[in-house]
Write a structure and sequence with these properties.
mainly alpha, 2 domains, 10 helices
């Protein structure tokens, strides 16, 4: 499930001097997950985040690097500060924290709220994440039409990975329904933009 979530800029994976520290963080997460009994999924999800998102081991306080290094509590605090300034990337990452239960209690409803907040600020990764929540019925009522519309918005906003979901959902969404759903999302985004200071 985590492999579907879109992180921020999704930089290229690089091997660097911090590989050892990342692998140690992954092993610690695995041990804690297995000990707490919360299952293998969380360990696999967190490994996927650390490995696929990149090694980013900066100690500079950059929240994305801290998140990728497994320092979830520190990253969360910094993302909250940025989200208070309406930083869409930070808001998306708060959603990812809640989706995974990384440094916070897992809460799909809160994750979906953060994804929607960032999606309305034109963050293509958050739009894709919100679409996944609608498609799977996580934290929101399952709705293939809304999922399709948000995947479409994400794709047109620059997230090329959203196209695979559009193809998957095209069998479940008629062309007329897809058009109405796209109009609904566009209207929701216009309404949000209208209410922004």
């Amino acid at each position: 499930m985590m492999r579907d979530l879109a992180l921020a800029s999704e930089p290229r994976w690089t091997l660097g001097r911090c590989y050892y520290r990342v692998s140690m963080s992954i092993q610690r997460i695995q041990r804690e997950t297995l000990i707490s009994g919360s299952g293998r999924f969380l360990a696999a999800a967190l490994m996927t985040v650390a490995l696929l998102a990149g090694a980013g081991c900066s100690q500079s306080g950059e929240p994305v690097a801290l998140f990728r290094a497994g320092q979830f509590a520190r990253a969360f605090a910094l993302f909250e500060q940025r989200a208070a300034r309406e930083d869409a990337e930070a808001i998306n990452f708060l959603g990812i924290h809640y989706y995974l239960g990384a440094g916070v209690e897992r809460d799909f409803k809160r994750a979906a709220q953060y994804f929607q907040r960032a999606a309305l600020r034109h963050d293509a990764n958050a739009q894709r994440n919100l679409a996944i929540m609608y498609m799977r019925g996580l934290g929101l009522a399952q709705d293939n039409h809304r999922a399709y519309a948000w995947f479409y918005q994400s794709y047109t906003g620059g997230n090329g990975n959203a196209v695979q979901y559009l193809k998957t959902l095209s069998d479940n969404v008629t062309p007329n329904a897809a058009g109405k759903a796209r109009e609904w999302v566009a209207a929701e985004m216009r309404q949000h933009a209208h209410h922004q200071p």
